[in-house]
Amino acid sequence: MDSNFTYYIFVLVAIIVGIIIIKKVTSCLFRIISLLVIVAILAYLYFTFFR
Fold it and tell me: Could you count the other beta carbons within 10 Å of the beta carbon of residue 16?
């Protein structure tokens, strides 16, 4: 019974760490994508109106 209990604790910790890592990576990816969209819009406006 003790080995099953430690196994479940390790699985629970791995799931929690995985969720935290996924949240960090997706927030970083969201920031990068939004920054790229803003840069693309600014570049379009620059080349459309100031060329």
Answer: 10
**Distance between first and last Cα of the chain:** 74
3-state secondary structure (DSSP) of residue 41: helix
Please report where in the chains the tokens 């019974």 appear, as a residue: 1
pTM over 0.85: no
What does the block give as tokens for 27? 């927030």
CA distances from 33 to 38, 39, 45, 51 (A): 9, 10, 18, 26
3 state SS of 33: helix
Find how far residue 18's CA is from the centre of its chain: 12
